[in-house]
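ok so dumb question maybe but i'm new to this and my supervisor (M.) told me to 'just get the structure for Thiamine pyrophosphate-dependent enzyme' and walked off. so i did the thing. is this what she meant?? sequence i used:
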Amino acid sequence: MLETTLDQGSDLNSKLSFDDFRKIIVEDYRVAVESRYVSLLGRKEVLTGKAKFGIFGDGKELAQIAVSKVFQKGDWRSGYYRDQTLAFASGMTSIYHFFSQLYAHPDVEYDPSSAGRQMNCHFSVRVIDEEGNWLDQTKQKNTFSDISTTGGQMARILGLGLASKLYRENPNLSYLKYFSNGGNEVVFCSVGNASTSEGVFFEVVNAVGVKQIPVVISIWDDGYGISVPNEVQTTKGDISEVLKGFQKEDGSNGFEIFKVKGWDYPGLCQAYERAAKYAREHHTPCIVHVIELTQPQGHSSSGSHERYKSKERLNWELEHDCIAKMHQWLIDSDIATSEQLNLIDEEAKDFVRKEQRRAWSDYNKALAVDASQAIGLLSQIDDELVELPLKQLQSLTEPSLKEVYSTVRKVIRELKGKDIEGKGALLAWYKLQQGVNESRYNSKLFTTGVDGPENVQVIAPQYSDDAKFIDGREVLNLCFEENFRRDERLLAFGEDVGKIGDVNQGFAGLQEKFGEHRVFDTGIRENSIIGKGIGLAIRGLKPIAEIQYLDYLLYGITVASDDLASLSYRTFGGQKAPVIIRTRGHRLEGIWHSGSPMSMILGTLRGLHICVPRNMTQAAGMYNTLFRSDEPALVIECLNGYRLKERLPDNIGDFTIPIGYAECIRVGADITVVSYGSTLRVVEEAAMELDRLGISVEIIDAQTLQPFDKAHLCAESLKKTNKLLVVDEDVPGGASAFIMQQILEDQNGYYLLDSQPRTLSAKAHRPPYGSDGDYFTKPSSDDIVETVFEMMNEGNPDKYPSLF
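this is what came out, is it supposed to look like this??
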């Protein structure tokens, strides 16, 4: 472990030439002081009610300035929500934009990071334009959109850094000039000391050490995790002591580990210069443990650290405040005088206040447009019911959009049934503004750019007369091979994906054909696998991140949900990561391989396309579409379908299945049954018996659950049958309830029914092992037959007498 302390730093002081470095160092001090005033003023803005919540980076200013000195264009930051000084010093944001985000300005011009969708200190830079085209990442300093999940920023650094390694080692990627300069980029990750207790931290550190990925991980250590001290959080009370086993030795992989005090300016600069050099030139990962940091205002604006810190600790923090230490060091080193530094303090304070006021003024000007228009329209309505709401709105000096639109909606309700002058104009304005507010607050769940899946040409599968019948796994294998040959950006990884070609042989032989850079194994680490895919995808590659079984998605759900699924939304379409998560499920039996937790997926992964193909040919068509588009997706293959025979299309790598469209796979007249995945085969089996009972079943394959049946095929079927049964393997009230809601509400299917719609799902518990466990737990052919017969009995008991 390489320790850099003030004692060692004192030797460095002589190296800081007054002529060469004075202006730079004094400017660093100015940035640190400005950032500190941002924290102090930001907290006041929260406490006065102007902002909802605040979290700040006070106490960590010098360490982040040291990082900014080695942060180059093309590099990436995957950080912690206390990195404001780094963001200011590197130019990734400004103080004005910081306060605009604090006030939740809903315009991306004012809050480029999130258009008011994220709290302050959650930064990002835009890497795609309004059309969804990639911007040149090598021309800017990049930061992946921050998330609040503790430790959540760790997983994606695997892919962000691995991309540099691939760009350096694979010459076939050299044409992707927008994403790398020969693999010379470094990923700078920051994490709080308490978050090093998270499993994802150790999972990622292990994976980074194995792959020797060019990252520099900074651990900001102020001794606490909110109120919990390091002694309770960490073995030995010191995370770098815990990590000593990861220290790189001769002939081994691992990390270079540095330990430096957060108030030691020269020591910090030296540590980060060395760490960045190791990572950039040699692709050796580094950890910089920054200790003895302070947190002058406590954890956040919602509490006070005086409640849990002793008087002695608080006094120590005052003495060891990094800015106070730098102030004294500048004087002692004859770099600046006390008068010069005091003047900088005053100038910084005035500048921060000016930028805060400008941001607050512009925020209110934006809101005032809506308020002014609403007041003008309400003033044109001559009715006593409007007078009080209008006066209340006029009395507000700085009305929020909530207050504006709540007033308008209240008036509309009060004027119900009245034909009065001005009401029509108010209604027309309100309907127009619904679209405006939809864009402000509800848009960009997907980027919907020029390369969206909806823009991929639909090409039908073609079959020759002598088309082969082969195993489903072979259909997928040939599909992957054709696409890997077509597009050098494609790569696949996961447990057992490389050497043996995955547990079901979808990638069999492809590592030999395309190399270990493109098809490779990983350890058992689901969070890291998905995070790796996210990082690779935002850097221009096309990763397939395999989760071995659908049940195991649970172990990577935080990364998939908190980071990937919300990425487009939380950046207002400024970032995208078109990773494909490939997995398999619907086995129909076994507590640990039941494989149908669809309600969990639907509840957590809004922002991903959820594809549930019924066989491997349909899966291949979906992959062909997704490989040609630029939005993230989860593809769940049927676990019990790999060895079922399927007809091989002649255009196996080219035909496409449109995402978001259902398919009618059996025409019928009496009842519509909607299902997906493996359960469709059970439904088809039941339909044949129902035919013998005189009941004609129409079967709709949902194909994708997100988006669901964009063409409203289910409703079209109900116009004919007037009866609906939804069948799936999820728990009661799970995916079947979602499908029902989509059909009855979004497609107005309720008005097409002549009997109660039904769902048929698995039991509430997981299925026991074995075929009998499957039969008594999940929908069987017998269950479907009897449920359909019962529904027909309700409408015509004479023709379909009760079975029981």
